[in-house]
Specification:
The structure is a single chain. This protein has 365 residues and is of the alpha/beta class. It contains nine helices and 25 strands. Strands 5-2-1-9-21 form a five-stranded parallel sheet, covered by helices on one side. It is globular. Bound molecules: flavin-adenine dinucleotide. Flavin-adenine dinucleotide binds next to α1, β2, α2, α5 and α7.
Length: 365
């Protein structure tokens, strides 16, 4: 009997599922993908898009075309609610869709901070509002601009340095990172040293160990009472679950992500799967990062197809020691693995070539 599989979110794992479906279309399957836009960003190339090294078209996967190749129906809309008990979802255009199996790869968003009306705040996740704010600021004449990037992780550093490179000739644009902890605490100490050195070279100021309690139109109020002036505030804070995850009856982990077993099945509804940043795989600690979402795609695809055939599923084997590459804005990058870290132009070329190879896999011409 024909089974219906609904893919929710066109994230890094699901694009690989689509590729596998295009290469080996399953018989007797009705498959659809829901995503709010017809394309999805290659996360590794985002800092290069901001810096101006890539055109947006070079850094986006055409989900709509990939779906056509995979004979998957594409719905350009978000999913608003998922009723796992009744095997149904509600899309953003008010339609109800029934399914036999569903899979979520919806990523996550930046952790919100209380904001007063009138404050200009954009998030790095999803990135589109930041890109729109950058071009808006560039399209109007302004005396000066103070950009505060709130966050302590790789995204905060990469965005700050990409903006510094983009505006390198402009004296009236100041960029600053405000970090709740020390910068890059989840990385080997040498990564922080190299990142701080790059920030100093490119005029990015760094305020560490200061949490932002509230964002007002012209200032950040820090926990402890101090204030910092701001005009545009960019949230690169830790991750939070997307709104949809509050609208489901699926089991969730302490951080709000979906609790799944090693075969990506929800721990309370085995016909629902999840992978990437929105999932928490039992027994594994996996950082929310594209380098960890990408390798989940192929085993997720295999398990979805096996589940449709009622075949046994294969547990995912996580490799924590992957090479991580942090862009430093000026076509240099930090490469880190096994507790070591080095920076250089070669690391950026490596990152550039890895990202281009990855994105080219999804242009099935
Ligand atoms: C500035 C920046 C730089 C980064 N650089 C790197 C890097 O160099 N290397 C790296 O590994 N990682 C990097 N990351 C992290 C990376 O972006 C994420 O970890 C990665 O994209 C997560 O992939 P994913 O598959 O979980 O979901 P995503 O790639 O986030 O995709 C989720 C998709 O689901 C869609 N979606 C969301 N909600 C719904 C809904 N309700 N219904 C339907 N669709 C929905 C979204 O629109 C999106 O298309 C960076 C992040 C940022 C912000």
């Amino acid at each position: 009997m024909k089974k219906t599989l609904l893919l929710i979110g066109g994230g890094h794992a699901h694009v690989e599922v689509l590729r596998q479906l295009a290469l080996n279309p399953p018989p007797d399957a009705d498959i659809a993908l829901f995503n709010p836009s017809p394309s999805v960003w290659c996360s590794g190339m985002l800092p290069g898009v901001i810096a101006g090294h890539y055109e947006p078209a070079e850094a986006k996967i055409n989900l709509w075309a990939l779906c056509q190749r995979a004979r998957v129906r594409f719905f350009e809309t978000s999913v608003l609610a998922l009723d796992a008990s009744n095997l149904a979802l509600e899309s953003g255009v008010g339609e109800r869709h029934r399914f036999d199996l569903a899979s979520l790869d919806v990523g996550c968003v930046s952790q919100p901070i209380p904001i007063s009306p009138g404050a200009y705040v954009v998030t790095v996740k999803p990135i589109d509002s930041l890109l729109a704010a950058i071009t808006e600021f560039e399209s109007v004449r302004s005396a000066s601009l103070m950009v505060r990037i709130v966050g302590a992780g790789a995204a905060a550093v990469e965005v700050a340095l990409a903006l510094a490179y983009r505006w390198r000739g402009s004296k009236n644009r100041q960029i600053s990172i405000v970090a709740e902890t020390r910068l890059l605490v989840d990385y080997p100490p040498r990564v922080r040293v190299l990142a701080l050195r790059a920030c100093k070279t490119h005029g990015v100021t760094v305020v560490e160990n200061n949490a932002v309690a509230h964002i007002e139109p012209t200032r950040l109020r820090l926990v402890g009472g101090a204030q910092l002036d701001t005009q545009l505030t960019v949230l690169a804070t830790t991750t939070a679950p997307v709104a949809l995850l509050q609208q489901t009856d699926l089991a969730r982990a302490a951080d709000g992500s979906l609790q799944v077993n090693a075969s990506f099945q929800s721990s309370n509804h085995t016909h629902i799967f999840a992978a990437g940043d929105c999932a928490n795989i039992s027994g594994l600690t996996i950082a929310k990062s594209g380098v960890f979402s990408v390798p989940q795609g192929a085993p997720l695809a295999a398990n979805l197809l096996a589940s449709m055939r009622n075949s046994p599923l294969v547990p995912y084997r996580h490799s924590p020691n992957v090479l991580k590459l942090l862009a430093l804005g000026d076509k240099r990058a930090i490469a880190t693995r096994f507790g070591l870290a080095v920076a250089g132009k070669w690391a950026w070329r490596w990152k550039d070539s890895t990202d281009r190879k990855w994105i080219n896999r999804y242009t099935l011409d």
